[in-house]
Amino acid sequence: MQQSIMSTLPLLLLLLFSSLFPAPSHAWGIHGHLIVCQIAQGRLSDAAAAAVRGLLPSYAGGNLSSLCSWADGVKLRYPWSAPLHYIDTPDHLCSYTYDRDCKDEDSFRGRCVAGAINNYTSQLLTYDATSPSTQYNLTQALLFLAHFVGDIHQPLHVGFTSDKGGNTIDVHWYTRKTVLHHVWDDNIIKTAENDYYGEGVAEFVDALMQNITGEWSQRVPGWEECSKNQTTCPDTYASESIAAACDWAYKDVTEDSLLEDAYFGSRLPVVNLRLAQGGVRLAATLNRIFS
Ligand SMILES: *[C@@H]1O[C@H](CO)[C@@H](O)[C@H](O)[C@H]1NC(C)=O
Ligand SMILES: *[C@@H]1O[C@H](CO)[C@@H](O)[C@H](O)[C@H]1NC(C)=O
Ligand SMILES: *[C@@H]1O[C@H](CO)[C@@H](O)[C@H](O)[C@H]1NC(C)=O
Ligand SMILES: *[C@@H]1O[C@H](CO)[C@@H](O)[C@H](O)[C@H]1NC(C)=O
Ligand SMILES: *[C@@H]1O[C@H](CO)[C@@H](O)[C@H](O)[C@H]1NC(C)=O
Ligand SMILES: [Zn+2]
Fold this sequence. Notes:
Its EC number is 3.1.30.1. By secondary structure, the chain is mainly alpha-helical.
């Protein structure tokens, strides 16, 4: 007994510490990624579902959603991957171009979430069901791709440079102090779950999937499509995100703004749409890769 308490103590302290001092994040929260991957999983072709099952570690039981936040967990182990979760665009310009913006803080070109989506898509295109890749770890390629297609749909993952996508803008979400970036990663989603979906992520996913096959069904083929027969088109997703960041996320927000019902009610439809588009496009991309 004594021993097992001692051995869990460091873990408990770590959990306590990390809940007191949450690390600054650059990611949809766990639920955002879960939602995107669950929507995608239900739309995979037989070939893509088989490839995904073959690439996932066996403990995942073929369930992609269970590993959609894996990329956030390896930022310390793979420091090179940290800049691959987002794009910094010039302040107040509200536009994105790959050549100008897709780089890391040291100006290494292609090191942003759009470059990473292209990178892992081309790695996965080498997949051969009959022999494991000797060149790439395609399990990691799949987990990075599934995560980054989610990230690039979070409007503030394609935000302004000086405020780090809203990470340096302090706000109040109802009674809690947080930062604008986190409101879009987590708070809007969690509040929607509490208010409308009996706190359940599964019901939220169901509601989104109903609109994908109902309300939005005419628009879905347009979401799936990429011009010029590209396998994936992250530049389109990024341009939409910075537009939504300016039109909705940053709009009327200043340091210490109090964000409550009016902000929540007007922004939730944008979050709903971006989660749905992320899921639909992740499936479309995987279906093209493994066709
Ligand atoms: C897949 O994993 C997610 C996250 O762990 C879980 O919520 C979901 O129920 C799982 N789905 C299946 C079909 O096991
Ligand atoms: C591409 O993937 C490789 C292997 O994971 C990685 O080392 C490299 O940093 C990636 N580059 C980009 C831009 O994603
Ligand atoms: C590929 O990456 C996964 C996840 O990090 C790891 O478990 C696995 O051992 C790696 N495979 C190879 C062949 O290195
Ligand atoms: C689904 O569409 C209806 C009708 O536009 C809308 O009221 C509802 O909020 C949408 N739900 C989600 C989860 O997007
Ligand atoms: C796109 O791909 C289809 C099928 O492979 C082909 O028939 C068509 O000509 C291609 N279109 C362009 C613009 O490359
Ligand atoms: Zn991320």
